[in-house]
Design goal:
This protein is 19% helix and 22% strand. The protein is of the alpha+beta class. A six-stranded antiparallel β-sheet has the order 3-4-8-7-6-5. The protein has a two-stranded antiparallel sheet with strand order 1-2. A hairpin with a 5-residue loop joins strand 7 and strand 8 (166-171).
Length: 187
């Protein structure tokens, strides 16, 4: 039987989401982050461990706007939603990526129509925080978040101009490469 989360995420990410987990935060207009209301479906505070994965395919297939991924560290987690009910599960994908072409990512930062503004990723799992640049100056854009999510996905992206790295914090991001939704799960 295929569950919703394996259809949506598949691959290594599907194996990770069985771990009890976390919540998400969303950004307000202008890029300033705010905590999602605890009553929002699929949102809650961080409640479980984050198992770090480094496979690039699950990330690059979901965020092709950022180009090929040179390296990444990410976790797939289930948000705490209060009462436990059997059925499909939402997945929070949180991580950081380094693009193969930092200039391609910086072109978004240089485009004034995106109106990037200082913002700070919230509820960063300790396992991911340990791989972030200590001196990063994160910038976020609601327009970029909408571009990547196509108006359907709940996600926040934070860019650091100096390192070229991008932090992503998304709920149920979909593969955009037409690849299989649920290949055999791996560790």
């Amino acid at each position: 039987m295929t569950t919703r989360w394996t259809r949506l995420l598949g691959g290594p990410l599907a194996a990770v989401v069985a771990v009890p987990v976390l919540g998400a935060c969303t950004a307000e207009a202008g890029g300033a982050p705010r905590a999602a209301p605890s009553t929002a479906p699929g949102h809650g505070r961080l409640t479980g461990p984050c198992t770090v994965h480094r496979e690039t395919d699950p990330v690059s297939a979901r965020f092709p706007e950022l180009g090929p991924v040179a390296s990444t560290a990410w976790c797939g987690m289930q948000p705490s939603s209060g009462a436990r009910v059997p059925g499909p599960t939402d997945v929070r994908l949180f991580g950081v990526l380094t693009p193969q072409d930092a200039a391609a990512v910086r072109m978004y930062l240089d485009d004034p129509s995106y109106a990037f503004a200082p913002a700070t990723p919230e509820d960063v799992p300790a396992e991911i925080r340990s791989v972030l640049p200590a001196d990063a100056r994160w910038l976020s854009s609601r327009k970029f978040d909408t571009l990547v999510g196509g108006g359907r996905d709940d996600g926040d992206f934070y860019f650091d101009r100096a390192s070229g790295q991008v932090v992503f914090d998304c709920m149920n991001p979909r593969r955009k490469d037409g690849g299989p939704a649920s290949p055999a799960a791996s560790g």
